Amino acid sequence: MSFPHLLEPLDLGFTQLKNRVLMGSMHTGLEEEKGGFEKLAAFYKERAAGGVGLIVTGGIAPNMRGRLAPHACQLSFPWQVSKHKIVTDAVHQAGGKICMQILHAGRYSYHPFSLAPSKIQAPINPFKPSAMSSRQVLGTIKDYASSALLAHKAGYDGVEVMGSEGYLINQFICSRTNKRTDEWGGSYENRIKFPLAIVKAIREKVGKEFIIVFRLSMLDLVDNGSTWEEVVQLAKLLEQAGVSIINTGIGWHEARVPTIATSVPRGAFAWVTEKLKNEVNVPLIATNRINTPEIGEQIIASGQADMVSMARPFLADAEFVNKAAANQSNLINTCIGCNQACLDHTFSMKRATCLVNPRACYETEINFTPTKNKKRIAVMGAGPAGMAFSVYAASRGHDVVLFEAKSEVGGQFNLARKIPGKEEFNETIRYFINQINIHHVDLRLNTKLDANVLAQEKFDEVVISSGVVPRDLKLPGFDDPRVVNYQQVLNGEVEIGQRVALIGAGGIGFDMAHFLCEKESSTLQPDKWLKQWGIDKSYQQAGGLTEEAEHTPSREIFLLQRKTTKMGKGLGKTTGWIHRSVLKQHQVNMKTGVSYEKFDDQGLHIKIDDVTEILAVDNVVLCAGQESNRSLVDEMKATGLPVHLIGGVDVAAELDAKRAIRQGAELAMSI
């Protein structure tokens, strides 16, 4: 498939973008690291060389009070320009264009010096902001303009003004967070003076031939957010004030609606950008869960937007646009929206990277250079770790034979992709299969690797990536055929009744509950998904919210854990709340502090706080973790060959593809 609309240049009058693809803003953590701007330059340079039309950096504060964290990056002083020039020079050398995002966090600032329109604490932040004085409001407008001018001097092609996601500008716009009684509060006209004054001040400083992107919150997804009429009014005034492009912002960070996780349908919010299309003349950018050139082409070709923004897809694959232009979209390493190595890292103050591409943000540290000592390597197990190692090692020139006992590659990903909302995992398997073919990995399916095979063929080293096996519980009655493990259920080996107890409430327990609750994945049915989360496409109420659709449970499910801590505490930092919300929607009964006694014809006998209870269930599903599949490790080591363990066979923690793929990459780099 060709992508003529996606790859068509966009003329802004004073400059032209080579295609309709924007690399959206992402904070990587490199901005604050020692030597981080050199690493950031390498990161952006690869994406510019990869063909993206316009890059937007992570958020840079216009002053100290606006920083996201105490030591977060800001651009306020001339001496800071030289660091940014390292980045812009690298991007321009690769033939790209780049804008710096100016972001004042407002009440989202994670430090005690935060400022906001009003003294109202965010529900996701322990720090309560101070209300800005009129003088501080005017000073902040000036700081935005000064930061934009410094960005201009640093060689940026433009700036993006972050006016959405619940940050400072959004806080001024909405009555939810703006309770001021002066000229910056009260009526909507007063509340939008702040963003308009910022855009006008920037345009006056930088002149006409400089890109100004405004990230406009088109759908707040919180109570007392903007109405649709207000969104349109502000968009028109922003156009008059001199913005070059309007980018779509979806949801505040405190909104209880998922907006970018893997369970969100592809292109789920393009409809709101389309609603604005006939109201303004400046180009509009659609955003959120656009992760393939096909969906990008569809959005632009259908007239929903003029450009598409993709952030995390460029973590997953720097060559995204070049591959699309070469009609090789099947070779793109697709973002699966897992958040595990990007947003989860960012919100934990770690450097961002990517589960499916561990080189992301490590371009100066992880590289697969041609080997000077070619080896023949046997790899046991074609799960994420084994596939990653095999591909990366083969790309260096090693002769790799990948043994898989089953009839297909993928390992635990073949189970994960069956969970509603995790269909994207198919893309990672597709990517690695293509890479296995491209790099001539000798893949042997339905073939076990053992000492006999090693004796018959000459190998230099052995890599064991045989993964994990479900942990059994040795309790009375647990040998009953009605007690099964999660793999048996996902593989369709057993029939499950209407009343089910799940033992173990980690990621597997939550996934199993979701699998048993949802007969048809709402992720593949966008309108159903929007109703499920109470998103109103007719936009009748402020913020775009309506009542969530009611659910009739298809099963009665008990999710049980031994620990007394909060259910799902160990789930992803930015996605755990989504999983808990889904199970509440399906009325899953969650119990903590559970001791398991036995299973018999009455059901599962449990004890909570020394009180015995019998759950009259048809089945018990064991989701109580895994053990390393080390059945042949000793046999392999006995051959005398160097043996390496990666993935679950090395550490059987909660299923951790991020660690498995990274281990595979690091071993391949060093072997």
Mean pLDDT: 96
The SS-based structural class is alpha/beta
Which CATH architecture of the largest domain?
Alpha-Beta Barrel
Task: Enumerate how many helices there are, as a single number.
Answer: 22
C-alpha Rg, in Å? Answer: 26 Å
What's the β-strand tally? Answer: 27
Binned strand content? 15-25%
Question: pLDDT under 50 segments (min length 5)?
Answer: none
Q: What's the CATH superfamily of the largest domain, by name? A: Aldolase class I
Main sheet properties: 8 strands, parallel, barrel
Describe the strand arrangement of the main beta sheet, using strand numbers.
Answer: 3-4-5-8-9-10-11-12
What best-fitting shape do the alpha-carbon axes yield?
globular
- Please identify the oligomeric state: single chain
CATH class of the largest domain: Alpha Beta
The portion of residues assigned to helices is 25-40%
How far the N terminus sits from the C terminus, by CA atoms, comes to: 38 Å
- Our count of domains comes out at 3
Query: What is the fold named in CATH at topology level of the largest domain?
Result: TIM Barrel
Structure description:
- The strands form seven sheets. An eight-stranded parallel beta barrel has the order 3-4-5-8-9-10-11-12, surrounded by seven helices.
- Strand 22 and strand 23 (603-608) form a beta hairpin.
- The chain is 30% helix and 17% strand.
- The chain has three domains: 10-346, Aldolase class I (TIM Barrel, Alpha-Beta Barrel); 376-469 and 627-670, NAD(P)-binding Rossmann-like Domain (Rossmann fold); 472-519 and 554-624, FAD/NAD(P)-binding domain (3-Layer(bba) Sandwich), CATH 3.50.50.
